[in-house]
Description:
Layout: H1 5-23, H2 29-53, H3 58-84, H4 90-116
Helix pairs in contact: 1-2, 1-4, 2-3, 3-4
Amino acid sequence: MAVPCETSVRTYAFSLRILKVVRAMPSDIAAACVARQLVRSGTSVGANVEEAEAAHSKAEFIQKMNIARRESREAVYWLRLVGDSNMVRPSRLRELTSEAEEILKVITAIVRNARRKP
């Protein structure tokens, strides 16, 4: 099963943007903990989309895309927390949070369509 190329390109770019935001975060204990979680979830989205592209079956494809979907949702949470706690200016995070929400919608649609097709 192939994921639209645009999705993997988009999630890779998202991962890069996550890394840039994390580098701008303070280095205190709270920020370090949140940064670690944000890096894990934010970069996992693209990694799981890549794994889905190499899936050997429809079931495996759906499983990997579902993981990417959960990681997208988690990344949205951590981005909101970073902004609301002023670890990074909320204005700097608006576009990235919006992109995370859009990626979540796209992946959700991919999973729904994959489940419908015989």
